[in-house]
């Protein structure tokens, strides 16, 4: 799936990720997120994406949801102690080359994860999950300030969609010029880069990647397919996989968008509602 990128600067050069042989472990990428029992988003989508990119996916579970193609029927947050123990268990023994965060439903969880990330040198992709594809709230309103002040400053790349931008900044995006304003507003909270996802706008699927000086507009054809559950989780995990294998930010984001575009094109129906994107589209 070709992706066009309009860039104000050239792409960064990736470091070599060549394997020296079958005994060498792949890059290790950690997702800190909630579970989707329907398998389309959350931890499940993250691990499928990481496998598709050839990295070793690991997980810190933050919440359990009862979820299907029609929506979220229930959600149960894990204790802070359980989240911290999972993170330390993985990072202190196995190590990580990149971390991706997803559903962090409360201020206590946001602050705990932000504290852990501040002690980790690997690049971090923050997907500031606010609502599900079906409109179900996945982040308490009381946690928004913690996301702004604690979590976003840890991000190498933050990946809000337009609804999440409005939640975090108050900027309502209706066109591409609004995406530029939104990016500037998110960058004030401290991430190195922000990817504003414009998929909710009409026309081609356009995203804006910027660090405040470089600006890259990424465009892809829009596919007429309603089965798009898990797009945000999948994109953020694909970016983390790229960063974990040594790609620069622009290269990682372009590769991730190409992967998600293909996954949307082949998304399939499950149940009676919105089905998932196809994480295995490259292998079918």
Q: Helix amount, in percent?
A: 25-40%
Uncertain residue ranges: 8-19
Instruction: Please describe the biggest sheet, giving its number of strands, its sense, and whether it closes into a barrel.
Output: 10 strands, mixed
Number of helices: 8
Q: Estimate the mean pLDDT confidence.
A: 91
Strand fraction: 15-25%
Which of globular, elongated, flat, extended, rod-shaped describes the shape?
globular
Brief write-up:
By secondary structure, the protein is an alpha/beta fold. It contains eight helices and ten strands.
Question: Could you please describe the fold and organization of this structure?
Answer:
The chain is an alpha/beta fold and 284 residues long. The chain contains 8 helices and 10 strands. The longest helix is centred in the last third of the chain and has 17 residues, at 249-265. The chain starts with a strand and ends in a 19-residue tail after the last helix. Residues 8-19 have low confidence and may be disordered.
């Amino acid at each position: 799936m070709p992706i066009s990128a309009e860039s104000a600067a050239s792409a960064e050069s990736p470091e070599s990720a060549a394997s020296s042989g079958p005994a060498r472990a792949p890059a290790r990428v950690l997702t800190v997120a909630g579970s989707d029992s329907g398998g389309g988003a959350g931890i499940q989508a993250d691990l499928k994406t990481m496998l598709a990119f050839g990295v070793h996916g690991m997980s810190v579970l933050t919440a359990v949801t009862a979820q299907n193609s029609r929506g979220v029927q229930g959600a149960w947050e894990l204790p802070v102690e359980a989240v911290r123990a999972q993170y330390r268990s993985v990072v202190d023994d196995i190590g990580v080359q990149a971390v991706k965060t997803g559903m962090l439903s409360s201020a206590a969880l946001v602050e705990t994860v932000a504290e852990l990330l501040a002690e980790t040198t690997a690049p971090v992709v923050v997907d500031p999950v606010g609502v599900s594809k079906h409109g179900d709230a996945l982040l308490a309103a009381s946690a928004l300030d913690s996301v702004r002040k604690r979590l976003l400053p840890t991000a190498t790349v933050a990946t809000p969609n337009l609804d999440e931008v409005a939640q975090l900044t108050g900027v309502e995006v209706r066109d591409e010029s609004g995406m530029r304003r939104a990016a500037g507003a998110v960058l004030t909270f401290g991430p190195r880069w922000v990817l504003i996802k414009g998929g909710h706008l009409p026309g081609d699927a356009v995203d804006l990647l910027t660090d405040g000086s470089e600006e890259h507009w990424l465009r892809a054809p829009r596919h007429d397919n309603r089965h798009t559950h898990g797009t945000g989780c999948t994109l953020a995990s694909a970016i983390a996989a790229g960063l974990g294998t040594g790609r620069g930010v622009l290269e990682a984001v372009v590769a991730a968008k190409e992967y998600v575009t293909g996954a949307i094109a082949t998304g399939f129906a499950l149940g009676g509602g919105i089905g998932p994107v196809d994480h295995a589209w490259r292998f079918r």
